[in-house]
Amino acid sequence: MEIPFFDLKRQYDCLKEELDNAFLRVFKKGIFILGENVRLFEEEFANFFGVRFAVGVGSGTEALHLSLKACEIGPGDEVITVPNTAVPTISAISFAGAKPILVDITQDTFTMNVKKIEEKITNRTKAILPVHLYGHPTEMEQITKLAKVYNLKTIEDACQAHGAKYRGKNTGTIGDLGCFSFYPTKNLGAYGDGGMIVTNNEELYKKLIMLRNYGEVKKFTSKIEGFNSRLDELQAAILRVKLKYLDEWNNKRRDIAMLYQQLLEGSNIQLPCEKEWSRHVYHLFVIRANKRDALKDYLEKHGIGTQIHYPIPIHQQKAYKILGYQVGDFPISERNAEEILSLPIYPELTTEEIEAVASLITEFQNLM
Fold first, then answer.
1. 242 is catalytic
2. Transmembrane stretches, by residue range (predicted)?
3. Per-residue pLDDT tens digits for 282-293
4. Element of type H or E holding 148
5. Of residues 69, 126, 153, 186, which has the active-site annotation?
């Protein structure tokens, strides 16, 4: 049985008529930049997440970058985040001219260890940037408390956590700003790049509207230095269709995760956890295994697609040696990088396919 790690065609086949019609309406109208679909999608997204404002931008990376710029974070400033994230999280900080300061993660949720944040705060620290990794929220209560005490901004990287909740609140809506990616494989994905920033702060919202479009307050009139980072009409039209299904898709992901948990219970691999204060939306289903590489090879030999998110922690990336960290500085992130494996998980997976993946993992363990 061939089971791809992700299969966008299945999703398209389910929504073909709606998606095709959405595309055609944009083509017939002939407006492709900052038109009606972007405006309506921003309103619908804000309503879905229960915030006042949403700003569509070019990507999740740009959502983070522009959020930092809106908070006037730049050269000489420091932003606290984690080493076990996608490089774009760090790129966004670098784009703003600030320095990423890393703290290790917890062993169970793979998210920021909030107990290690305060020791990293200096007079140059301007923001904390937690990453809600794999669809599980970071423990936000301590972060928001520290931000208040030290007068820091909190910018949430919710690029893998569309619809996840922390103590009943949507991730991305707890800090000053929340950032989302619409990369095609996300829980809510476009057919290209795209991103969104959400906030309840009107001043930040007004700055973001300018920052995404050359700093303009009106056409050909730039009030501040800005960028070209706009969500386009075609992607917004597609995302408007898909947003209606996000809750349903997240529930299906949770059902798949529960079935994996049941089928792999009692095995010697570490399964994903879901803290009592969270609602995990399983953007990824990430296990830990002592013989990860051998397991990955075994599954792929039998037609099962897998990936590793992420094989090289940020401080071990050649591009970020400049940060000055050494091997051993973040032991949990480093160990995870050697043991984690992402299994197929998307709403269109069948029960038969999930059972086949779990059966092969059990078979591999028995061979060992």
1. no
2. none
3. 999 999 999 999
4. helix 140-150
5. 186
